Amino acid sequence: MKPVAIFRHAKGEGPGYFATYLERHAIPSILIAVDAGEGIPRDARQFSGLAFMGGPMSVNDPLPWVAQSIELIRNAVRAGIPLLGHCLGGQLVSKALGGVVGANSCKEIGWGRVAVEDNEIAKTWLGDDLAGFESFHWHGETFSIPPGATRVLSGAHCVNQAFALGRHVGMQCHVEMTEEMVRRWCDLGRAEIDAAAASPAVTPREEILRDLEPRVAALNRIADRIYDRWREGLARN
After folding, report:
1. Of the candidates 33, 32, 47, 36, which has an alpha carbon nearest to the alpha carbon of residue 1?
2. Residue 35 placed within a domain
3. 3-class DSSP assignment, residue 137
4. Residue 85 carries which DSSP code?
């Protein structure tokens, strides 16, 4: 089986629980550290799937790797290689598929509930027994649902939390979090949290860290549902 390519755009925003999931299922992977200057491949057929992680930049920034990533995403769609986007990664997938990325109505940081949409595609990705869950958030921009895709998750402060199109899925929320990642982000982003404290969707640092172990464990179980469905579409040759 060809490896899953994982694209990291910031050192502190690696694959997290997604890497644990792949290892548990004996799925090979390769980390492409875009933040360290590693180049974007041209042909998605080298991989069984492509996963794009988060980052503090915007997909609208004039960064060479943004345009290259968008071309790779389109190449993957043509080749039938499944795409998985987390936050910035979801924005990249949306933009590549014809969506628009811009400022959200407010900054969203910390734990917040998302709802599972009442449609068959959402049930396919998340099951028919789940109305919603508490996810993790850290973003100021958001994506539109690209043409042909279906919204599968929504939120009170950011309507478009996830979309699916065939074997491809893009998320605004972060389901890949580990305890270590949450703590690290809170330490590195302390000033950002304080500066955005007036936002109704920003949680104080102390609240973000409260009951962290069970919260992350519950989120990992939700991630399993999404990743299980995504794994079904991986190229096997």
Report:
1. 47
2. yes
3. strand
4. E
Task: Indicate whether 63 belongs to any domain.
Answer: yes
Please give the residue range of the domain that contains residue 167. Answer: 4-231
Task: To the nearest 10°, report the CA torsion of 218, 161, 9, 196.
Answer: -90
pLDDT digit string (tens) for 176-200?
Answer: 999 999 999 999 999 999 999 999 9
C-alpha span between 93 and 211 (Å, rounded): 32
Q: Which two tokens stand for residue 94?
A: 């949306």
Q: Are 189 and 170 spatial neighbours (Cβ–Cβ below 8 Å)? A: no
Q: What distance in Å separates the CA atoms of residue 201 and residue 217, rounded to the nearest whole number?
A: 22
Q: pTM for this one?
A: 0.97
The CATH number covering residue 196 comes to 3.40.50.880
Rounded to the nearest 10 degrees, the angle between the axes of helix 179-188 and helix 212-231 is 110
CA distance readout (Å), 180 to 72, 124, 177, 216: 31, 30, 8, 10
Is 26 a domain residue? yes
- How many distinct structural domains can be found in the chain? 1
By CB atoms closer than 10 A (0-12, 13-18, 19+), residue 207 is: exposed
Q: What is the pLDDT of residues 24-82, one digit of tens each?
A: 999 999 999 999 999 999 999 999 999 999 999 999 999 999 999 999 999 999 999 99
For residue 126, being part of any structural domain is answered with yes
